[in-house]
Design goal:
- There is one protein chain.
- By secondary structure, the protein is an alpha+beta fold.
- It contains 31 helices and 26 strands.
- The chain has four domains: about 220 residues, Cytochrome Bc1 Complex, Chain A, domain 1 (2-Layer Sandwich), CATH 3.30.830.10; about 180 residues, Cytochrome Bc1 Complex, Chain A, domain 1 (2-Layer Sandwich); about 200 residues, 2-Layer Sandwich (Cytochrome Bc1 Complex, Chain A, domain 1), CATH 3.30.830; about 200 residues, Cytochrome Bc1 Complex, Chain A, domain 1 (2-Layer Sandwich).
- The chain has a six-stranded mixed β-sheet with strand order 3-4-8-5-7-6, with helices on both faces. Strands 11-12-10-13-9-14 form a six-stranded mixed β-sheet, sandwiched between helices. A six-stranded mixed β-sheet has the order 15-16-20-17-19-18, sandwiched between helices.
- A hairpin with a 5-residue loop joins β15 and β16.
- It starts with 10 loop residues before the first strand and ends in a 10-residue tail after the last strand.
- This is Peptidase M16.
Length: about 950
């Protein structure tokens, strides 16, 4: 995984000075540097530690940045940094086996890690009572894990990483493109010549000695930054850090890597036939500069200017004029040693990529002729100002920012310099970097086309070489187990390194919620939060997909798209510019049961942002040209969806559960069949459903109720009576013991959805079913994850849960498993569901209660999470203290309560099984499960045997 760093912008404040002689106040705009407060110190072992205090929520975030990524690997040993990240989460000397993945969620926390070209990061967010426990578990993973590595653990984690690669690369459309680009952009031996996940043959060959060598070389304390942010006391935290981390060995000095930019001697054009892709895709990648290079800021803005708006030349030519693709992206991607400027276009079905390449050239010529528009430059900088605040809106994001800037920029407060450098970019700088890195320069170009459509590739392209794994049905050499624990002598310590106790239990309390109502009938719900000068808002209008005309699913979705394409008084480009100059974000989308207008902006721009929302709502443009373009873009997206096994399984699953006559049997975005006859008149007719009666306005952020109501008074001009929402009968499958199979040839994994319709969010049992699911499918500590991934190595992840809606919603078990472990995975899930009620005892009651109560302390930190509280109250009629009442209900739950809920809603033989995989190898296998097996196509239609 890669955590992208935001380029940030200095902001302005207004200072009012009043003279004693009562002369008129004079307003002076002054620039204030943006900064995150912190304290930094270095332990004797070289570990650099950064502390940030934020007492707004009773939580603490911890991030450890190891200065080692795939760029430290060698050919023949690729993928090792990422593999070691996985190994680090297994065992350590003073922590129980498997505790890292299991115990942290049980404490109410979240945890994960990620590896990039340049670093490996480990991070957690926990309630403050578990803070010292995180010090214990994190320091043990960092400094005391290497002696616990066993052959069994090594082999088990190899299977997990293989499953991750199959899920993200092998079984995904365009999954091999990054590998093709890297191997051709960077010469052999360059640290970026291979992907972060690396080569599976290299991984399979890894030994325990390799693991130990890597740890000893790169996992010293002097090669890391530790950041702790949240509700902490500095002096207490310093003492804990010294105790838990101070004895970790410094490690050998790690050689500093200097930037290694590359220069291509020629342009390379390559093609690849993709087994999953349904659309042709073109990428062009130019070598540029590394992170923190001054030119990277101008290149970032160049990317926005070339394609980031409707006025941009590439958008105008590729999308609007020649109608070759629904969109185009250009952006700068910088890493520690080098950087890339990327053009990426997924074209419409059947588009010849030669024509697309010509259109890009035409757009670039237009940019060279017209140059940089100063107004566009101003708009981009305004957008970056808002991004500044959004990028540090949680304690974990602050920890990332401080840590990355310390480890790679040499200064935790580099954010201030980044802001200045971004703000200082001129039109001249943008043209200079364009001429230096793009115009007339060599690049790597890839034409990835659907299988059997080589005629769409760029002419004279050479075939790309990619190693593709063959997953064989014989799984004997891929079976893994927990195995024996390692035998070793514990590393001596002057401290007691056993598990520390919890601190004082932090109690979650609902934020104060205010409500009001406009004259037009729209209800207002708000939470004032003054941590950052930002607001997020959402208007929810009942209806959504439920109000789509019969056989025209996708109308509401298209309405939400078209209404953002200008107003009666503004062209699409002018509306986009008006929003951008405010640094605001306004969007619309349609869900199954609701239509939404969402946005965010700096508090100072709220009134102007709402003025634009009003104009969008009340003065739609109904631009026929934009309608045609958007409909084509939707059809392209729907065609692209046919390439995604996860999308396929979801579409078919819903169709079986809800039945053909229910709207939820078809996605809210529609299908190629349902959108083909949609006209702009259908959209205009749907627009009459967008009325304020029964609508709700939700807002969270740095704004008072009085300010909000004053600004929103302008929306009283929006009128309309409530619309009746139709009710539908569910007529889905009622047969038992059915397994539906969808063939996607050569799939390296099988995608599984197993479940049944359960209940509505308004059902009194809804909370109890959520509670009851926690043990079996609630994250990495759930039985599904622990068994299928940790014990068996069959998958990268396995989860379950019930979704929220007014309509009856399904309970679903989800996973993607190694193809040759499909049957064994299904058998495990079947048995786990069938025996769940009888296996639920007092220990599970206690664990569920403690886990969920503590998780609430961190669940509502962000403005988006606070908006979700307000949406739940307005949509489902929950009380303003519903979370606290849910907690009381949880505390009162008994073993018998849990057993009754499980038996009522999670009966295994009532559930359907949907499997998307390779029929050639898995059809006979799934027959052995003992269920009636029915083959469907990717649209959910029965396949008639020949």
């Amino acid at each position: 995984m890669r955590i992208l760093k935001l380029c940030l912008l200095a902001f302005s404040i207004v200072v009012i000075s009043c003279k004693d002689d009562k002369e008129n106040a004079q307003a002076e705009v002054v620039e204030k540097e943006f900064a995150i407060d912190y304290e930094k110190f270095t332990l004797g072992n070289g570990l650099e530690v950064i502390l940030h205090q934020d007492k707004s929520d009773p939580i603490v975030a911890v991030a450890t940045i190891m200065h080692v990524g795939s760029n430290r690997e060698k050919p023949g040993k690729t993928g090792f940094a990422h593999f070691f990240e996985h190994m680090s989460f297994n065992d350590s000397e003073n922590v129980p086996v498997g505790a890292n993945r299991k115990m942290i969620p049980e404490w109410g926390g979240s945890r994960n890690g990620g590896t990039s070209n340049d670093y490996t990061v480990y991070y957690e967010v926990v309630p403050k009572d578990a803070f010292e426990k995180i010090m214990w578990i994190d320091s043990d993973r960092f400094g005391y894990m290497i002696n616990t590595v066993t052959k069994a653990a090594l082999e088990r984690e190899k299977q997990v990483v293989k499953n991750e690669k199959r899920q993200r690369v092998d079984n995904a459309p365009y999954g091999y493109t990054d590998e093709i680009i890297r191997s051709n952009l960077y010469p052999e031996g360059h640290p970026y010549n291979w992907t972060v996940i690396g080569s599976l043959p290299d991984l399979q060959a890894a030994t325990i000695d390799d693991v130990k060598e890597f740890y000893n070389k790169y996992y010293g304390a002097s090669n890391a930054t530790l950041v702790i942010a949240g509700d902490i006391d500095f002096e207490e935290t310093k003492a804990l850090v010294k105790q838990w981390f101070g004895e970790i060995p410094s490690g050998p000095e790690v050689e500093i890597q200097n930037p290694k930019p590359v220069t291509l001697q020629e342009t390379k054009s390559l093609y690849f036939e993709d087994n999953f892709a349904k659309l042709p895709e073109l990428r062009m990648v130019y070598p540029t500069v590394e992170e923190y290079n001054n030119d990277s800021y101008a290149l970032q803005i160049l990317g926005q200017l070339l394609s980031g708006s409707k006025k941009s030349p590439l958008y105008q030519v590729v999308v609007e004029e020649e109608k070759l693709a629904p969109n185009i992206g250009t952006y700068q991607s910088s890493s520690e040693l080098a950087g890339e400027f990327i053009f990426r276009v997924r074209a419409n079905a059947g588009v010849d990529l030669d024509s697309l390449k010509m259109a890009i050239n035409k757009g670039l010529e237009r940019f060279e002729t017209n140059g940089v528009n100063e107004r566009d430059l101003k708009r981009i900088k305004a957008e970056l100002e808002t991004n500044l605040y959004q990028g540090i809106s949680t304690v974990l994001n602050k920890a990332f920012q401080l840590g990355m800037d310390n480890e790679f920029g040499g200064d935790p407060s580099y954010i201030t310099k980044t802001a200045k450098l971004t703000n200082a970019v001129t039109a001249y700088d943008v043209m200079r970097v364009y001429n230096k890195y793009i115009k007339g320069q060599n690049y790597v170009m890839t034409s990835v086309v659907p299988k059997g459509q080589l005629d769409l590739a760029v002419s004279n392209a050479e075939e790309a070489k990619v190693w593709i794994e063959e997953v064989k049905q014989n799984v004997a050499n891929e079976e893994v187990s927990q195995g024996e624990e390692a035998e070793y002598e514990k590393t001596p310590s002057k401290y007691d390194r056993s598990e520390p106790p919890f601190g004082d239990l932090p109690k979650f309390t609902m934020p104060e919620i205010w409500t009001a109502e406009l004259e037009n009938g729209m209800k207002l719900y708000g939470i004032e939060n003054n941590e950052i000068p930002l607001v997020q808002f959402d208007i929810t209008i009942p209806g959504g997909h439920l109000l789509d005309p019969e056989n025209k699913a996708g109308v509401a979705n298209l309405v939400s798209d078209l209404m953002m394409e200008g107003t009666a008084n503004k062209t699409p480009a002018e509306l986009e510019e008006a929003i951008g100059l405010l640094g605001a974000n306004i969007n619309m989308y349609s869900a199954n049961e609701d239509f939404h207008i969402t946005g965010s902006c700096l508090t100072k721009n709220f009134d102007e942002t709402i003025a634009l929302v009003k104009e969008i709502l009340l003065e739609p443009r109904w631009d026929e040209t934009e309608f045609i373009r958007l409909k084509q873009a939707l059809e392209t997206a729907l065609k692209d969806r046919e390439a995604n096994p996860n999308a396929i399984v979801g579409l078919v699953y819903d169709k079986i559960l809800y039945g053909d006559n229910h709207p939820f049997a078809v996605p809210a975005s529609g299908t190629l069949n349902t959108v083909q006859d949609i006209s702009i008149e259908d959209l205009k007719a749907y627009y009459t459903n967008l009325v304020p009666a029964k609508a709700s306005f939700h807002i969270a952020g740095s704004i008072t109720p009085e300010q909000t109501k004053s600004v929103l008074a302008t929306l009283n001009d929006w009128k309309g009576e409530a619309v009746a929402i139709p009710e539908y009968t569910i007529n889905g499958n009622t047969q038992k013991d059915l397994l539906f199979f969808i063939d996607v040839p050569d799939s390296k994994q099988s995608v599984l959805n197993i479940g049944k319709l359960a209940l509505s969010a308004t059902n009194p049992d809804a909370n109890n079913l959520d509670f009851a699911n926690e043990i079996i499918g609630g994250g990495s500590s759930g039985r599904l994850f622990q068994t299928l991934r940790i014990e068996k190595g069959y998958t990268y992840g396995a989860y379950s849960g019930v979704s929220n809606s007014l309509e009856m919603a399904p309970y679903t078990v989800r996973s993607s498993v190694r193809a040759n472990a499909t049957l064994k995975s299904l058998e495990i899930i079947e048995d786990m569901l069938a025996t769940y009620a009888e296996s639920f005892g007092e220990d599970e009651v206690t664990l569920t209660r403690e886990k969920l109560l503590k998780a609430n302390t961190r669940a509502y930190e962000s403005l988006g999470a606070k908006l979700s509280i307000l949406r739940n109250i307005s949509k489902y009629g929950y009380s303003q203290d519903y979370i606290e009442k849910d907690q009381e209900e949880l505390i009162a739950m008994t073993v018998e309560d849990y057993k009754n809920i499980i038996q009522k809603y999670l009966t295994e033989d009532d559930m359907i099984y949907v499997v998307v995989g390779d029929k050639a190898t898995q059809w006979d296998e799934v027959q052995k499960l003992g269920k009636t097996v029915i083959e469907l196509d990717i649209f959910g239609n029965r396949v008639v045997s020949q």
